[in-house]
């Protein structure tokens, strides 16, 4: 039985293998683990299957032999052939009694016993693992073989996951490439731009430097060379050879005839084994394999994309053909649009240019207005900051004098200071409004949420305006219908600011001995506050501009024209809304709601 310590090491190895995403790293950990922790063998090698059916050394544990120089041919090694046919592990405990192993390998590696296990991924043999000592038998137990097989199964899963990951990544990459191609082609307005864009993305899709495009002359039924990207021939040589030696007509060329009439891509891995291509032309350009994709849009063939392979034959995968066809399809659509655009009447083009120029001018004007708006906001913010400091200093000085800290004042002096204090307070409020406006314009304004009793907030607001109410001998009623729970969560100072702004407006526009009513109630988890006055009302023609910045209903009354505009923005930042109703000569009702 294997020791607990070894099982722990194997568990750690398992975690390492399943955390790796590079095949080379996983297989190195795998062979090292089998060699050091399971079999204690001299050599553990992973041999990777090649397209021709042979297996080449890929990864091995630390040893004197370079495993990458070893090649195993199942045709010459019956032991390997049996493993592949049965798709199961095999163990020769004494190679003297079992002649299946290749004699050359047996002598070279001094193999006395050997374990071979196929690595099956997605139901196909991905590789083979071999375990043996040099010059001595291994005497592996059944448990060691089973643990090694379990590790091979685990590695198979890890390789499968890598392949799935790579396939998914390739699919995502292809989708992104197709999306990029579609976007780029949608911006290509001319035939030249469309085909240039097609070249760029078709080369990326195929990984080939050889891409050519022909345009189809539907009237003459001929294929005409348009543009080529090649490392084997220049575009001028390509076109000259077509003009002088190769005149492509779909009635004489079977391959192009089939592409044009069938409107489908054709992939030929060996052009000389297929009767359809023009073998003389293929020999002239050194073409061995060929992928031909029609440019079809609105059931019309506009041309084709040719992707040849030079000097060697190549198999084109179905997924690759389908992907190239997708790029060809979006190219054909863009090409059809470009051809249609280039054949429009000259006057339409001129008009388009005029509209484009007008649009450029409009964009320039918009940018200029945006710049001026930024300058305005910056100016207001700077000016407000510059004004606030001296105003605050003056206010502090006036407050000190009013408190008679520096000496007793007579009644006339106190009245003057009282008037000055109110004027300073009004000016400071206006500066604060400008600061709030500038912050909102620049997107730097933030709310500070807290829980508070909104009835206390209303009482505070009425206390602040009490002196103004008394001065005009106004009647102020407060009606609160909130039930037991009067708390809400919002920016308390900003809700107070909104309420004070509405109350100040009502006081300004309500004549002596008029009436102002505050109603507050909770409904559907929303707090609603109404400020109702018996003032002069708002003229109908001015009501649509009531929340416009810097707009004043009555220019005879001092103010910045920002109060209601800022109030609306503050309410909307809370997720609420503000509205009003007004009748000229009778009064106004302003109402705002805020979610509790």
UniProtKB/TrEMBL annotation:
Enzyme class: transferase
Histidine kinase domain span: 382-596
Entry keyword Nucleotide-binding: yes
EC number: 2.7.13.3
UniProt cross-references to Pfam families, sorted A to Z: GAF, GAF_2, HATPase_c, HisKA
Catalyzed reactions: ATP + protein L-histidine = ADP + protein N-phospho-L-histidine
Xref: PANTHER family: HISTIDINE KINASE 1, TWO-COMPONENT HISTIDINE KINASE
Protein's recorded name: histidine kinase
Taxonomic lineage of the native organism: Bacteria, Bacillati, Bacillota, Bacilli, Bacillales
């Amino acid at each position: 039985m294997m020791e607990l310590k070894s099982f722990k090491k194997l568990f750690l190895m398992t975690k390492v293998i399943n955390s790796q995403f590079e095949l080379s790293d996983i297989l190195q950990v795998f062979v090292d683990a089998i060699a050091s922790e399971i079999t204690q063998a001299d050599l553990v090698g992973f041999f990777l299957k090649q397209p021709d059916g042979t297996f080449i050394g890929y990864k091995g544990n630390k040893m004197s032999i370079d495993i990458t120089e070893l090649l195993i041919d199942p045709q010459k090694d019956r032991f390997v052939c049996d493993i592949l046919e049965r798709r199961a592990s095999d163990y020769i405990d004494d190679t003297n009694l079992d002649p299946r192993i290749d004699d050359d390998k047996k002598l070279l590696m001094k193999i006395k016993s050997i374990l071979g296990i196929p690595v099956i991924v997605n139901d196909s043999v991905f590789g083979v693992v071999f375990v043996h000592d040099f010059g001595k038998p291994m005497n592996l137990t059944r448990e060691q073989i089973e643990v090694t097989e379990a590790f091979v199964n685990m590695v198979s899963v890890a390789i499968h996951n890598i392949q799935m990951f790579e396939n998914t990544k390739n699919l995502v990459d292809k989708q992104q490439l197709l999306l990029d191609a579609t976007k780029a082609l949608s911006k290509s307005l001319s035939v030249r731009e469309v085909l240039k864009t097609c070249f760029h993305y078709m080369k990326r899709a195929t990984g080939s430097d050889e891409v050519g495009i022909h345009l189809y002359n539907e009237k003459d039924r001929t294929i005409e060379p348009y543009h080529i990207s090649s490392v084997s021939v220049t575009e001028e040589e390509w076109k000259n050879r077509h003009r002088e030696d190769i005149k492509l007509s779909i009635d004489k060329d079977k391959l192009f005839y089939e592409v044009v009439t069938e409107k489908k891509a054709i992939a030929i891995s060996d052009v000389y084994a297929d009767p359809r291509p023009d073998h003389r032309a293929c020999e002239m350009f050194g073409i061995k394999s060929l992928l031909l994709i029609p440019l079809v849009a609105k059931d019309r063939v506009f041309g084709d994309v040719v992707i040849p392979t030079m000097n060697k034959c190549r198999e084109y995968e179905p997924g690759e053909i389908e992907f190239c066809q997708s790029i060809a399809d979006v190219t054909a659509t863009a090409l059809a649009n470009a051809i249609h655009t280039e054949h429009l009447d000259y006057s339409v083009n001129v008009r388009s240019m005029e509209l484009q120029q007008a649009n450029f001018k409009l964009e320039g004007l918009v940018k200029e207005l945006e710049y001026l708006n930024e300058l305005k906001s910056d100016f207001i913010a700077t000016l407000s900051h510059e004004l606030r400091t001296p105003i605050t200093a003056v206010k502090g000085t006036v407050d000190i004098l009013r408190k008679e800290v520096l000496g007793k004042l007579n009644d006339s002096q106190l009245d003057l200071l009282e008037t000055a204090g109110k004027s300073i307070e009004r000016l400071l409020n206006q500066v604060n409004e400008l600061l709030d406006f500038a912050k909102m314009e620049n997107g730097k304004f933030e709310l500070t949420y807290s829980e508070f009793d909104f009835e206390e907030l209303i009482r505070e607001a009425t206390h602040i305006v009490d002196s103004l109410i008394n001065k005009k001998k106004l009647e102020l009623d407060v009606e609160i219908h909130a039930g037991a729970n009067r708390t809400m969560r919002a920016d308390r100072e900003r809700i107070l600011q909104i309420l004070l702004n509405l109350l100040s407006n009502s006081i300004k526009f309500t004549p002596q001995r008029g009436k102002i009513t505050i109603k507050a109630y909770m409904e559907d988890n929303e707090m609603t506050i109404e400020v109702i006055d018996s003032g002069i009302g708002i003229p109908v023609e001015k009501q649509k501009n009531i929340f416009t910045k810097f707009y004043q209903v009555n220019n005879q009354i001092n103010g910045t024209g920002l109060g209601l505009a800022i109030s609306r923005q503050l309410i909307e930042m809370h997720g609420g809304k503000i509205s009003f109703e007004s009748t000229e000569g009778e009064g106004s009702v302003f109402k705002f709601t805020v979610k509790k």
